Amino acid sequence: MKAVLVSWPFWAFLSAVFAAMTAIFAKIGVENVGSDFATFIRTIVILLTVAFILTATGQWQPFGTVSTRSYAFLVLSGLATGASWLCYFRALKLGDAARVAPVDKLSVVLVAIAGVVLLGERLSPRNWLGILLIATGSVLVALR
Question: Phi/psi at 82 (nearest 5 deg)?
Fold first, then answer.
């Protein structure tokens, strides 16, 4: 069991499970709430939850131990996350969760392309086929 807890597929699958729960819970939650305010509430919950986890596990670290480069990219990531959440909640407010979430998952396609172009990662032809299928599936699910 310990080996499972340190494997990326385990955590990636849990991420997918929680992302699915996020879409369903958020769709219900934004029913009578403005999407931006709903995002604000969600952000507070996440902030408090992560602070609790850091405290409970003793993982806080001095802010000075983080490099300027890391700070810059973490801030950019935070800004991108905030923009993503605002757009996602707005889309959920306006559309069906079953159609919004697959379009949101086009991020998988964009990450694969950016990983190759910007990070020098390599994907096999089978990987590219999977990316093409994800893109195709996202579009097909989004259509009426």
Answer: -60, -45
CA angle 143, 138, 21 (to 5 degrees): 105
In order of 11, 25, 73, 94, 134, the CA distances from 120 in angstroms are 24, 37, 18, 37, 21
Residue 14: φ, ψ to 5°: -60, -40
DSSP codes of every residue in 34-54 = -HHHHHHHHHHHHHHHHHHHH
For residue 3, is pLDDT > 90?
Answer: no
Q: What is the pTM of this model?
A: 0.87
Q: Report pLDDT digits (tens) over 100-126.
A: 999 999 999 999 999 999 999 999 999
Alpha-carbon distances of 38 from 5, 21, 34, 75, 96, rounded to whole Å: 32, 15, 6, 22, 17
The per-residue pLDDT for 1 is 73
Tell me whether residue 35 is exposed, middle or buried, using C-beta atoms within 10 angstroms of its C-beta: 0 to 12, 13 to 18, 19 or more. buried
